[in-house]
Each structure stands twice: as C-alpha cells, then as structure tokens.
Amino acid sequence: MEAFLSSTLAVAIAEIGDKTQLLTLFLVARFPAQRMAIILGILISTVINHGISALFGAWLVEWVPENWVPWIIGLSFIAVGLWVLVPDKDDDEEGGALKYGAFIATCILFFIAEIGDKTQIATVILAARYEDALIAVVVGTTLGMMLANVPVALFGGWLMQKIPLHWVRWSACGLFVLLGVASLTQI
Fold it and tell me: Which of 11, 14, 81, 86 has the smallest CB count inside 10 Å?
C-alpha cells in the first residue's frame, strides 16, 4: 500500500503544471467532442510508458551511454514541439491526421511527451525503491497522472473558448522546444 500511495502522490504533485497538462488542453481544443477518447488515450499511454519505465528504466540508464541521454530527450522534445505546429487537415482528406482520431493522437503524443519527463523518472525511482511492488508503482503513478490530467480534459474546453487555438499551439511548441534546448544545453 505504501508503494501505491507514494507513487500516486509523487506523480500527481509532479504533474501539476507539467507540459502534459498543456498537451491535454491542446488535445481538448482539437477534439472538443472526444474528451473520453482523450482520457482513455492518456490512461493507455501512461500505463504503457510507466510500465516500461518500471520494468526497463534502470536497465536503460545503465546501458545507454550517459552522453546520449540529453540528445535523445532534447531532440524528442523539439520534434514534438514542431509537430504541434502542423495544422491538421480536414476530416475527409485522405491521409489527414484526423483519420486517426483523438484516441490514437493522444496515445502517441502522451507517450512521446512522457519520455524523459519528471513523472517517468519518478516512476523509475519509485520502481527501484519498491522493487517488490512494481504493479503498485505503475498503478499509483498512472493514477497520479490521471488525477492531474482528467480535470484538464473535462474542463479545458471552457478555457479554450477564452483562448485562441493558435495561441495554445504556439505556446505548446515553445514549451516543448524550450525543454528540448534545455536538455541539449546539458551536453
């Protein structure tokens, strides 16, 4: 129970004001009628990401050369930032991003956004601390992520009526690029 409660609390607090909350807001603005698909996408991508983190995080840190980590994280952040700027095509256009829908977009974007994030690192650390309770750690960190992002998914639409989508898109891009540059400057 300690592993579950510690994991839930640590990630819920770490997630407040995190880039994935901005990503949730962006997704709600893009898919306003599909909040439950967004929430399910957050859940699935978090379970997968945090599960991998709990099982393989310590191994990856041990085997990946230390000087590669900032490059991988930094370039991933910049790529996501630039992707956010690409406007979606109309629903009926062949090959448009919308044919994949809110669920797939959320799964992909959340998974990428969590790479190297403080909640992913917290999951690795918590898994090392509670190595006999990996399931409790993954369930706890996932619950913490949901506690922080579900309210944004449910009520973010109201906020988006007040804020233009292009402002959110550029803000999200700026945040991801800034995080990428910050990672790269640690090289």
Answer: 86
- Asked if residue 89 belongs to a domain, the reply is no
Domain count, the chain: 1
**Phi then psi for 86, rounded to 5 degrees?**
-75, 115
Whether 130 is in a domain gets the answer yes
What are phi and psi for residue 96, nearest 5 degrees?
A: -65, 150
Q: What phi, psi does 87 have (nearest 5°)? A: -70, 145
pLDDT band at 116 (very low <50, low <70, confident <90, very high): confident
Mean pLDDT of 131-146: 90
* Global pTM value: 0.70
Domain of 143, in residue numbers: 2-66+94-162
pLDDT tens-place string over residues 16-53: 777 888 889 888 888 889 999 999 999 999 999 999 98
**HSE-up (13 A, CA, CB side) for residue 48:** 16
**Contact 7/126 with Cβ under 8 angstroms?**
yes
Residue 126 lies in a domain: yes
**Whole-angstrom Cα distance, residue 58 to residue 62?**
6
Whether 76 is covered by a domain: the verdict is: no
